[in-house]
Amino acid sequence: MPSPPEADLPQRSAADIAPGAVTGISARKRERGRFLIAISGAPAFTLSEEILFRSGLQIGDDLDTSAIARLLADDDVARATEAALHFLGYRARSEQEVRTRLKRGAYTPEAIDATIDRLNDWRYLDDADFARRWVESRAQGKPRGQRLLQQELRQKGIDAETSKQVIAE
Question: Which residues make Cβ contacts (< 8 Å) with residue 96, sequence separation at least 6?
Answer without folding.
Answer: 156, 157, 158
